[in-house]
Amino acid sequence: MNHLDFYEKVMSLRKQGQKAAIATVIRTKGSTPRKTGTKMIVYPDCKLHGTIGGGCGEGEVIEKALLVIETGKPQQHQVDLTEGLLYEDGGICGGIMDVFIESTLPYHS
Amino acid sequence: MTITSHTNIHLIGTKSLLWSDGSIFSDNAYSKLFSNELVAHGLPLLLKQQTKSITFPWETAKVECYIEVFPAPSRLIVAGAGHVSEPVEKIGRMLGFYVTVIDDRKAFANREKFPEADEVICMSYLDFFREVRITPKTYILLLTRGHKFDVISLQELLKREEQLKAQERTTYIGMIGSRRRIAGVFEQLKSEFTHHHFKNIYSPVGLDIGAQSPAEIAISIMAEILKVQNSSPGRSKREKIQDYEKLKFYERDRK
Q1: B1: which chain A residues are within 8 Å (Cβ-Cβ)?
Q2: Minimal Cα distance from A22: which residue of B?
Q3: Is A24 in Cβ contact with B70 (below 8 Å)?
Q4: Nearest by Cα to B4 from A91, A23, A85, A17
Q5: Are strands B98-103 and B24-26 parallel, antiparallel or unpaired?
Q6: Total number of domains in chain A
Q7: What is the CATH superfamily name and number for domain B75-229?
Q8: ipTM
Q9: Is B250's Cβ below 8 Å from some Cβ in A?
Q10: pTM, whole model, 2 decimals?
Q11: Residue ranges of the XdhC- CoxI domain (chain A) (predicted)?
Q12: Mean pLDDT throughout A80-95?
């Protein structure tokens, strides 16, 4: 995805005062589906723009993003894909990603 | 640069922009000292064009900062606006290229045909390639309606690139055509341009995936461009799996 398109989208959400969250992969270790710098927008209805890799890891991030949208408070989430190679809840990649999740609207506590 | 961890929670999520000359703009009133600290950590990464998270001690605790660089996008120039160019232009944009389509015919080089291209230019090929900016972020595809236009364009590019150092030249110039025809053309070009290494010239274009239709050819071409851009071997990934099988996959204990 194109950086400019992404930021244009974020700016238009901001202008419209529309709530959403931005999740950014800020650190990776081992084999992960996406690299540092990958971003996605999570909307309050769980719709996505972009992907940070799909699967259960992304599901966890979406859950946290909903919280961020509600509270406006940024937070980090670590997606651990190293467990359960053959289990249903395990990632198929075998690495760890740190994801920073922030609201599209500025945070005032 | 985004602060992603800080003992002062009000600073988490605050952002600043850093330019390569060291000037900084932030959305928050950071102290002068803190700003300086950010510049000192961010600038080397910016100059190396490296995106990463860093931590540094600040006052009594640690600050974590995510630093992302925004390189200018690579430019994909598609010469010839025929059947193959349409999917090439689309996929090029999907992959983040700044895509320019050029053709010397108004009926082909127009906004109706390429509504979303970054640039559509109607101009003679030779005039265009005489002036076009050449950088290592330039990727050129010669897909014109006639082999002679491709060859004329390529000659002009080779002539200009001969004047440049190898690292200043384009990364990729692909020219479509049959193997036989191209073999003949290259024999001639190599004797004509003896100061060019031809390492960035890819002709015939594309990876060998049996592509036939315009969409298939576009995928074969763009796959080759990605392979070159990422300096990857472009083989099936399963060919590497044997090395990993030896390493085994170890389960970690569940928490």
Answers
A1: none
A2: B13
A3: no
A4: A23
A5: unpaired
A6: 1
A7: NAD(P)-binding Rossmann-like Domain (3.40.50.720)
A8: 0.84
A9: no
A10: 0.77
A11: 14-79
A12: 63
